[in-house]
Amino acid sequence: MSNPGNLLKTGLLDSIRSGGWAEENSLAAIENLSFPSRKQEEWKYSLPPFAAESYKISTENPASAAVPGNLPDGIHLIFSEGRWLPEAGTKQLPEGLEITASRKPASVKPYEDNIFSRLNEATAAAFGIHIRIAKNARIEQPVLLIHLSANSADAQWIQPTICVEAEEGSSAGFAEIHQGNNTSVMNIVNEIRIGKDAQLNWFHFQNTGGKSILVNQTRAALETNAQFRHLVVSQSAGFVRNNLDIHIHGKGAHADLFGLSLGIEKSHCDHHSFVHHAEENSSSRQLYKGIYSGKSTGVFNGKILVDQIAQKTNAYQSGRNILLSPDARVFAKPQLEIFADDVKCSHGATIGQLEEEPLFYLRSRGLDLATARLLLVRAFASEILMELGDESLREFAENLAIARLDEMTRSL
What we know:
This protein is an alpha/beta fold. The protein has helices spanning 4-19, 24-31, 115-122, 124-127, 356-364, 369-385, 391-410, and strands at 75-80, 83-84, 97-100, 128-133, 143-148, 157-158, 161-166, 171-180, 185-194, 199-208, 213-222, 227-234, 239-248, 254-263, 268-277, 283-292, 297-306, 314-323, 329-338, 344-352.
């Protein structure tokens, strides 16, 4: 019997060849890679549940997609089937922000050389865009990357590539929003370079349907005194895998990484973070929280690597999870690998249920059980949501997250 993963790989390679997007030597590297199995430690708890043996990468330019009306304020960039539609989004860009339908060669290498990365790289010339924030530019409004997909009869494989270059002294904020309810696989790569004294915020909001698969790979390289803030809110009903690679190359650079997962039904959300401190006097902070109901599953696998040269590193990592159902599960694996001797590094993970004492206190004040649960989980989630500095983005995320939390607590 044929291996389903090999059939899937063959179909995708044939699709890429027919589109003429990649040279044969780049496809040869994919031939030597396989789709994940449970024997691989990095994918032990997170096998994508592919719905078909063959997925289609569209060779046609997509039609203009219907843009949701509840989007936050900002500069809107619309993507349909992985392709950027300049005519569908904001026409007038602020000074210092340049966007082109091209893609520079890979400059931020992934921690794990997996087949998803290689497949995305093979079509980057067709599906990639390059965003440049000019030296000392201040982009006040957030740049919203809106990913849409049509309800096609074919199983779609969608893989946009977004390269961002924040030049010295610049600052900007991005929000990547995934909404949809089809059987597509979204295999996306974000490559981000943050120059000296530059600041960049990146927010993911993931709200896809129960049959969808989202593999999100975000890589950032930080130079001297660069500041990076990354926050993801995932309430997708399907499968989500977030690979986050942070490479700190400059003195005084700092990265904040935050995540909130709201698991329902049989959803699966996996956060894999890798933070590499390769220079002295740098710092990072990670805080991931999850609330899981039904038969949902969460994974947090975080690794901090401190090179021998990276003295005076200050790195913190924490994962905290609440299980609202006896059938929900969480797997946590925080890791430290330290080769320097003058550092402050700590990590930890907790998994538990709602505490009875605060529930009793709230019910003694006249609240019903569902409302008491909702207040407690909202308080737990608010620590992450409050890290969203932009008011419009925070209101957008809070409204949808509160609606999901209300659904989760009232169904218990």
